[in-house]
Amino acid sequence: MLICGNAYAIQDIKKITLKEALEIAVENNIDYKASKINLNIDENKIKISNKLKNPELNTFFNIGDIGRGNPQITGISETVEIAKRDARKKLAQANLELTKQNLEYLEFDLKMDVREAYVNLVAAKEILIALEAREKLLNDLLNIAKKRVLAGEVEEIDVIQTEISLNQLVIQVNSQKAAVKTAMLNFNKVINSDNNLKYDADDENFSDKEDFLALLSPEPLDELPTFNAILNNSIKNRYDIKIALKEIDVAEKNLTYTERLRIPDIQLLGGYGFMTKGMSESGSFMNGAYAGANIVNIPLFYTFQPEIQNAKMQLEQAQLKYNSVENKALNDLQSAYEKFITAQINLNYYNDNLLKNSKDMIKAAKKNYAEGKSSLTTLIVMEQSYRSINAGYIYALADYYNCWINFLREVNVEHFDLKKESL
Description:
The chain is an alpha+beta fold. The protein contains nine helices and six strands.
């Protein structure tokens, strides 16, 4: 439990799995919550677009001799839009659909960010575990060296050399502990929850997993479909392309509405009029109704030409943007595909060749030094080689997971079924 003082709430650290992290982020992410409000705003804009013009009350009273023979009138007028209301409503509906598409993309992108932050946190933890294991190994070597010095089997220089290597490793361990804290803070930054909890990855490492399901990734030996088999469906289903198409739809409907601004509207009038005895030429009270109509908003002095030109240019922009998004999507997808294939090859190479041999090597070297069959220098060189291979394997694992996440970003699919996509 972390207590941050009176000015801050008490924060508990809770370990969660990747699936739990995804659920928490979608439910509690502050930015995502704020974006969801846009749906309500756009729904209200549809209601606004469907509005009728409010009526006007009119009254006209004559005072003095000017009123003789002229009626006193009171009435109401209403402006009726011609061919605008429906176009405005369709534009608002198109904007709502665009907002929905953007929100879906935001949720997908949030999930990918959570997955990436989770993997990076687990990788940082595993590197720390590996460094601490090496620290233990060097401590064991230091104890062996001290025993052999006391036995007169080796010089004091072996102890000094081991202590130097150990001290250098302690610095790396301390730095990696800070890296783990930073990775955890970034993980919480991505989740961006509005509760008082701090989250930590439930997994401490991922290098010893028999399957990769916990991190929602395929097995390293699973075969990815060919690029051409993936291309068509992926391009069609990408969120950015769907959004670009929606933006074209919005621009087209905006042009339609803007052009209809040039259509005049009709103003309907009606009311009641009367003349008192004193004002009537006949000397009797007179009353009655009146009705009328006006054509208003006639585009005579202003023809809305700048608005129409802007709407046409916005449509052209949307069409060009769609072409650009499609071109970039093709390149990004191919790049992500090639990077994942390379990461898969590298990881399998570590699994098939380097790991087992390096573990056998360091085990044999440690035994040989303890038995006086090799020098400390040889052992430390082998230890450094083992350290490098082990670290490289962890980085290869992290790269494998991150390349898979990046591949999912480009195909815009949260769960990619290798078997289904291969058909």
